[in-house]
Write a structure and sequence with these properties.
- The complex is a heterodimer of chains A (105) and B (160).
- Chain A is mainly alpha-helical and 105 residues long.
- Chain A has one domain: Arc Repressor Mutant, subunit A, CATH 1.10.10.10.
- In chain A, helix 1 crosses helix 5.
- Chain B has one domain.
- Chain B starts with a helix and ends with a helix.
- Classes of the chains: A mainly alpha (105), B mainly alpha (160).
- At the A-B interface, helix 2 and helix 3 of A face helix 2 and helix 3 of B.
Chain lengths: 105, 160
């Protein structure tokens, strides 16, 4: 997996904002979909890109599917590098949006 | 006329209900087939992981049968992302091979030039001593090939 920076789109930003709201918390794909309203066709490729760039890491949730009574969920967690990069991206984007809003008034 | 319209309306209503029932009955099967197709589209290394992850997703967020089309789109994009790395690696690999092939062709041509093209030498060999120019070009080609091979080896190691 390469470590290039992922493409920052509005969808990527909304995924990152979910993680930045509670950086130490592990989140499942379905929870991100519920919070952001993103469809799985957009969500999973974006998560894959972020994982490729080592901004996120993932692992299976604890437990056996037979005992859980459902398939295991893949839990995503922000890495220290990802947190730093995500915060800097958010700052840049908010500065850009602030600049545009200032110019338009 | 009114009689025809009434008969047509009854038949149309019956047909529409029949189509709707059939579609509803076939939708889970279609969704399942679409889901399997999406998994088959994924690279083998990612198939097992996403099979369980997406089943978990469907379990937590049950949608309509059309939701499986989203997994199909996701599989296409993930496949593209994984294959991009493979294609780049192959290009690097074949670029080094192409340089070696070019070098061999050059050596062969420099030996066989007279026999193939008659007595006329290539323009570059008129000005300089043929042997010296051949040696310089050969050394340069070997150097470039070596650098490219090293570069591709480093990139392959980094990707692994």
């Amino acid at each position: 997996m390469g470590e290039n920076s992922p493409r920052i789109t509005t969808q990527t930003l909304s995924i990152l904002s979910v993680f930045l709201a509670s950086p130490a918390e592990e989140v499942a794909g379905s929870d991100i979909a519920r919070k952001t309203g993103l469809k799985s066709g957009t969500l999973y490729p974006a998560l894959f890109r972020l994982e490729q760039a080592k901004w996120l890491k993932s692992k299976w949730e604890e437990g056996v599917p037979a005992k859980l009574g459902r398939p295991r969920r893949r839990m995503y967690l922000l890495t220290p590098k990802g947190e730093e990069q995500a915060r800097s991206v958010c700052v840049k984007v908010s500065e850009m949006i602030g600049g545009i809003a200032w110019q338009s008034t | 006329m009114a009689k025809h319209v009434t008969v047509f309306g009854v038949i149309a209503a019956f047909l529409l209900k029949w189509i709707a029932d059939e579609t509803r009955a076939w939708l889970p099967w279609c969704a399942r087939r679409f889901f399997d197709l999406s998994l088959r589209l994924l690279p083998p290394s990612e198939r097992e992981r996403y099979s369980e992850e997406w089943l978990g997703h469907v379990e937590s967020l049950p949608g309509t049968g059309f939701a499986s089309a989203q997994f199909f789109l996701a599989a296409l994009q993930i496949r593209g992302l994984v294959m991009k790395d493979v294609v780049v690696e192959r290009c690097i690999h074949y670029r080094a091979r192409a340089v070696w092939f070019g070098f061999l062709v050059y050596c062969w041509l420099s030996v066989r030039w007279n026999k193939i093209f008659g007595s006329q030498k290539p323009p570059s060999t008129h000005d300089m001593s043929a042997e010296n120019s051949n040696l310089v070009v050969a050394a340069l080609v070997i150097l470039i090939a070596f650098v490219l091979m090293e570069q591709s080896r480093k990139q392959s190691t980094a990707m692994a």
